Amino acid sequence: MQQLVQGVHYFQKIGFREREELFGRLQHGQEPEALLITCADSRIVPNLITNSEPGQLFIVRNVGNLVPCYGTSNNGELAAVEYAIVELGIEDLIVCGHTACGAMQALVGPSRTPSVTNWLRHADATLEIVREHYGHLQGQALVNAAAEENVLVQLEHLRTLPVIASRISSGRVRLHGWMYKID
Predict the structure, then answer these.
(1) Residuewise pLDDT in 10s, the chain (183 residues)
(2) Ramachandran quadrant class, 167 (left: phi over 0; alpha: psi -120 to 50; beta: rest)
(3) What is the DSSP code string of 123-135?
(4) Cα separations in angstroms, 67 against 12, 78, 85, 96
(5) Across the strands, what pairs with 36?
(6) What dihedral do alpha carbons 58, 61, 67, 71 form, nearest 10°?
């Protein structure tokens, strides 16, 4: 924890000053280029892997980069997506999964965490696809196949949001599926 506190102090004294002009512009609002939905995994650092600056990405992170379908109660993910599209005018939406994903490990194997198990119900379609088409895989290969399929399933979940469906049909929103290979 001490290293993180020292990092905050470094940013306050040096890091902010090095980018003072950028932060000066950002105080007047944001105009991100894309929405990135990715996993909460600490090894995934969106601005690092995209070589982007603060303000370029609108980021939604959660366990397993899941997007509950439209109509699901308490759906903060879709609220963030809707805000990104309607209020910020973002046209490119990215769902980024990754290899060695702990959420996908919990999805295809036994999970010891009841809250995670409940959350992963938003990946039930992923689990069914994996069971039907990837029974020949085991271990990390199975987890990685689940992560790849999950990106595609979550893109389909995004399409259930009316504001996305309408904009896709008119070419004003584009969906992208990415996989970050940690190794």
Answers:
(1) 989 889 888 888 888 888 889 889 999 999 999 999 999 999 999 999 999 999 999 999 999 999 999 999 889 999 999 999 999 999 999 999 999 999 999 999 988 899 999 999 999 999 999 999 999 999 999 999 999 999 999 999 999 999 999 999 999 999 999 999 999
(2) alpha
(3) GHHHHHHHHHH-T
(4) 35, 7, 15, 11
(5) 59, 94
(6) -80
| ∠ CA 10-15-21, rounded to 5° | 150
The answer to whether 37 touches 154, Cβ cutoff 8 Å, is: yes
116 vs 109: CA distance, rounded Å: 12
Strand partners, 92: 34, 174
Q: Tokens standing for 121? A: 């119900």
Q: Which helix (H) or strand (E) holds 5?
A: helix 2-10
- The label of the residue with tokens 């996993």 reads 39
At which residue do the structure tokens 């990415």 appear? 178
d(C-alpha 89, C-alpha 83), whole Å: 9
